Amino acid sequence: MKIGSNLKALRKRKKLSQEEVAKALSLFRSTYSGYENGVAQPNLENLLNLSDFYQVSTDFLLRENFENYTDSDWKRIEYGNSADVKGQNLRVLASVIDKNNEEVIELIPLKASAGYVSGYADPEYLKVLPTFSLPFLSRQKKYRSFPIQGDSMPPVGEGSYVVGEFIQNWQSVRSGTPCIVVTKEDGIVFKVLNNMLEEAGSFQLCSTNTLYKPYMVHVNSIVEIWRFVNYISPELPDIQMDTNSISQSLKEMQKDIQYIQQKMKF
Fold first, then answer.
1. CATH topology of domain 105-232
2. In this predicted model, what pLDDT tens digit does every residue of 9-35 receive, in sequence order?
3. pTM exceeds cut of 0.70
4. Where are the domains of the chain?
């Protein structure tokens, strides 16, 4: 438990003296000094007060080692990010395997999507889901398929299913990457992500439909991120032709009409 050295690192980061911290927390300086030096441990009430004062979770305060933190790690703390964005601790990810002991792609039906946020790590929830395989995908990665609702991400339309690759390290997400994001508040959403972890501890979520405005989601609200791989749709996407393509198509049609007219003369 690194609480003493962590308190010292947090205090120095804020450029405060032991006297200033002790006064803010209504403690004797000797009491607070004892916490930093490891000769005493804060009781539950003081532990919660220290957590609030330094704006970190008690879990972070007790388990992390702030002495080795980089500037980017400190920014993550200062923006209130208690999520493990680097994926250094294995994220809980239940999975389904087939009779050959190989992982399959779970398909989340629309009716089951509302319960995904609470059931994503529950084997009982996952084992009743339909599954399938795509032989051209890597066996070294984990995939899952999610339903798409609404018209915010053309050409992927409502009724489609997006296949995503599980992302362990959220810092690896490059801006402009389409992803399925599972959030505590909104559930399953499919958006283009802009990585703003360094600046704001958040991702900006954007739609390909410009009628929908981008919005920010803090990483503490995110449960999972899946990188877009492909999608399955019951409908063909609309094909937008440029001026040259339209002109060429008209010329081909004219040739066909002329050919038919010549044949009809005979």
1. Umud Fragment, subunit A (2.10.109)
2. 889 988 999 999 999 999 999 999 999
3. no
4. 3-69, 105-232
